[in-house]
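Form 7-S
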Amino acid sequence: MWAMAVELKRLFPQMPLIGDPSHMAGKRALLMELSQRILDLNYDGMIIETHRDPDAAWSDASQQVTPEKLGEMLRDLEVRNASYGADFSDELASLREKIDNIDRELLEVIAARMSVVEKLGEYKRDNNVAVLQLDRWKQLHNDRANQAKGLALYPEFVEELFKLVHLESIRKQTEVMNNATA
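Output:
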């Protein structure tokens, strides 16, 4: 649920954000990975539980590390620059410009899709067909997940993306249906 931290940073940039990898992980084996992620997302601090004999701790034993292990972890964590210098900014600006162009194209494709969805809604309205076609949704869901794998995209990302697209398609078609009866 890292998106929550990113959104908190966006909405309240002055508010300190403290991560608790010990409780987030619940297991000491995951502490390093979560601690690095916390640093990479520019949290302002961390709470890491330590005990001289973690297995004998009265509570939260499985998520604690020895002081020695904590020291090792802290030395191994990679603190990244929160900002960048001028030599870095030209390449960054170029890459961001490419992303901006792709985003514009992506929005144009979504707008074109919604235009087709509107026509689909009119066709369904004129032929008295329900907006939600569950078999079609299942087919689309499976097909897009398979396409995601072939494009080296996380299937979970594509699943969430197409849930949003499908919900907007349903909203658009329902709007078409309701406008005809108004």
